[in-house]
Structure formats: structure tokens, C-alpha cells
Design goal:
By secondary structure, the chain is α+β, with helices and mostly antiparallel strands. The chain is built from 7 helices and 9 strands; from the N terminus they run βαααβββββαααβββα. It is globular, with a radius of gyration of 18 Å.
Length: 226
């Protein structure tokens, strides 16, 4: 199947009552994870992640998800259908999912504030130059002058690549450059205040127009359960 990216961003429209309605249709693994969250938003984001995955897998009428297992470094996969790949991510503004017949990684992050010290810790010199940080802003405690969306996009590109490889967060993330020749990363930034990046094997998609995310409504999320 061609890679497909799905996003749900109407978290205000997905209520605690909606979570209660779908809870019994979620996997045991998801319900156990939800039970550990203290805050309502975290519980709702987690539930939406599984509903997005159900939609991406084409499930209807309450069909169960394939059994999910985890690789040694935590990347999830379908144990009974390893040729169907997926990845999930969420921030407070949105939940994102990618499904494909090849390894994939996805990350979504809000445009949060950052300081120069954080930027130096996570970005290479080339990336810092790309973001055009002023010398004064790179001093300890200084605020970054680049757009928050630029920071979020670069961060999600790194995370998507690490999730694609299954290696997880690198010890020296600043040394991790663009995955040229190893994979392709495509990014989008949205007005609600978040960036999303998807990583695929080199050559799977010609450009990001072929991967343009599909935004789902709550009705579409619920359609997989009935």
C-alpha cells in the first residue's frame, strides 16, 4: 500500500464522554496505557492515536487491530502482519499516524518556546545557521530569535528519522544530520501551532505532495467501530 498520513486535530471536540464511548473498543494495551495518565487530554490523545491507526488500517465494524508488539528499542509493530508498518505521534494540538508497506517514522510537535542553550544541545552548527540564530541569542539563557515553527520542524525531522530506524533518541542528537541517501523526510507546519514530519525509505515518495496528510473528523474516527 502507498504510504498514507492521517491527522486529527479537533481535540476540543473529542470529549471525556467520547473516550468513555470508545473505551471498550480499544485494545487492552491501549486501555492500560490510558489508565496511567493523570490528565484528561493525555488520555484522549492516546485513545485518538489508536482510532487513527484503526482508520489507517482500513478496519470497520469493530474489527480488532492486529496484535501489537515492540522491538528491542520500543518501536511498535504488528506481530502477525510485520509487512504492514505504522507509526504514531501526538502533541497537545494534534495526533498523527502513518501507515505503509515499508518502514516509517512520524513525529508531531507544537511550536513551543526555546532558548539558545536548548538549540545548541539539539541542533548542529549547520542547522543553527539554517535557523539564522543571532549571536546574542545563542548565549546561555538567551532566547531564540528564529520562528518557533522552524525549531519544531527541525526537531520533528530528527525524531521522525529516529523513529523510522527504530533506534530511539540518540545520545548526541546534535550530531544527527539530515538522513541524505538513507531516507527521505517530508515536513508540514500548520496554523494551529504544530509541525509534522514523516520519514520513509529513499525513493518511496517523489515529493511531499504525494504524502499530503489527510485530516479526519470525529465521525470518521468513530466509523471504524461501527
Amino acid at each position: 500500500m502507498c504510504p498514507a498520513v492521517y491527522i486529527f486535530e479537533d481535540m476540543d471536540g473529542f470529549s471525556d464522554a467520547d473516550l468513555a464511548d470508545v473505551a471498550q473498543s480499544l485494545t487492552d494495551l491501549r486501555r492500560e496505557r490510558i489508565s496511567r495518565f493523570r490528565f484528561s487530554l493525555d488520555r484522549r490523545l492516546s485513545a485518538v492515536a489508536e482510532l487513527l491507526l484503526r482508520y489507517g488500517c482500513g478496519l470497520t465494524d469493530g474489527q480488532p487491530l492486529p496484535w501489537i508488539s515492540f522491538a528491542s528499542r520500543g518501536k511498535p509493530f504488528f506481530a502477525d502482519n510485520p509487512s504492514l508498518h505504522f507509526n504514531l505521534s501526538h502533541c497537545r494540538e494534534a495526533v498523527a499516524c502513518v501507515v505503509a508497506d515499508c518502514p516509517v517514522g512520524i513525529d508531531v510537535e507544537c511550536f513551543d518556546s526555546c532558548d539558545g542553550q536548548l538549540a545548541r544541545a539539539v541542533f548542529s552548527e549547520a542547522e543553527l545557521n539554517r535557523l539564522e540564530i543571532a549571536d546574542a541569542a545563542t548565549a546561555e539563557g538567551g532566547e531564540c530569535q528564529f520562528q518557533k515553527s522552524g525549531f519544531a520542524e527541525l526537531w520533528t525531522r530528527k525524531e521522525a528519522f529516529l523513529k523510522f530506524t527504530g533506534e530511539g533518541l540518540a545520545d548526541d542528537i546534535a550530531a544527527l544530520g539530515e538522513p541524505e541517501g538513507r531516507a527521505s523526510v517530508f515536513s508540514w507546519s500548520y496554523g494551529k501551532g504544530y509541525s509534522c514530519s514523516v520519514c520513509l525509505p529513499q525513493g518511496v515518495a517523489a515529493d511531499k505532495t504525494a504524502l499530503e496528510p489527510i485530516f479526519l473528523s470525529k465521525k470518521e474516527l468513530f466509523s471504524t467501530l461501527r
